[in-house]
Amino acid sequence: MITKAILTGGGRATRLYPITSTINKHLLPLANKPMIFHAIEKVVDAGIKEIFINVNPGEEDLQKHIGDGGHWGVKIKFFEQTGGPQGIAHVVNEAKKFIGDDPFVFYLSDNILFGDVKEMIEEFNKGEHDCMLALSEVPDPNRFGVPVFDNVGNLIDVIEKPEVAPNNFAVTGIYLYGPKIFFEAFDNIEKSARGEYEISSIHSYFLKNNKKVGYKEITGWWKDTGKTEDLLLANRLLLEKTNNIIQVSPSCVYDDTVELIAPVIIGENCILKNCKIGPYVTIGQGSIIKNANIEDSILLSNVEIDCQITISDSLIGKGVKFLKKEERNKKHKLIVGDKTVIEF
């Protein structure tokens, strides 16, 4: 029975710069909750008791935000990925001392899944597979590991980011492994042309050595949040699942000059005046919003906006300020890093 999980917490997320130049991607808020919290909740709900999270060397932000797991009733430990980024298969191998001979889940924390993994783990626990993969149909499979099937639908290989994909399925970032099997495979693969130990090479090794590799298609919504538009879409859909609530912290200050359009979540100690917020907006704690319209956007903490501006489809970093310089009546699409000051 699987009771252990490895979650990713490292990497530099350069596709999300400049936001991720000063904040770990896995702490970016989705529905005003750090992204990695969604992954933790998924595996805890599936019966996981011990979680191991990799972090970048020297970083301590994840440890401060997540703690020891007591909040979720589990044990959480952190480990550094030594030797720099060498692929996600290398992340798993670095956790070998924690996993030992036990089966485990490997979950990429920047994957947002609306279904649960409980059913997948229950099926794996029946003992019919050495490995189980979660598949999802996508419009751009060449960005992912892609399964290869024979003429009767048997899984026969997995190839990483093919130029021409054999089908429209992607191997998502949820993997289940039986005892010892992963580490045996890791000792028998080599780095790819891009200098990484590919997780697809592990699965290809299994299939070529007669291991039982099963798969399950994800029926709920799944997204790899590698780009800004993916984050905004995930935030929007997570907010939709809240039954279109308007959630405002009791510590916020606002009056009848504020129009809130559901779904919206406003963090602690915010000040709102003469503004329209929503739909699909989350605002981090300590922010001040005046004279602005904001829709379909994520604002991190301590953002200050005091000008007549309409912001849409935007990701705004911590401590950003928008100061009034001149009146403009137009929408702006922005990806703004921490502590930026913008005058209009």
TrEMBL record:
Cofactor(s) needed for function: Mg(2+)
Record has Lipid metabolism as a keyword: no
Entry-linked SUPFAM superfamilies: Nucleotide-diphospho-sugar transferases
Gene3D superfamilies: Hexapeptide repeat proteins, Spore Coat Polysaccharide Biosynthesis Protein SpsA, Chain A
Catalysed reaction, written as an equation: dTTP + alpha-D-glucose 1-phosphate + H(+) = dTDP-alpha-D-glucose + diphosphate
Entry similarity comment: Belongs to the glucose-1-phosphate thymidylyltransferase family.
Name of the featured protein: glucose-1-phosphate thymidylyltransferase
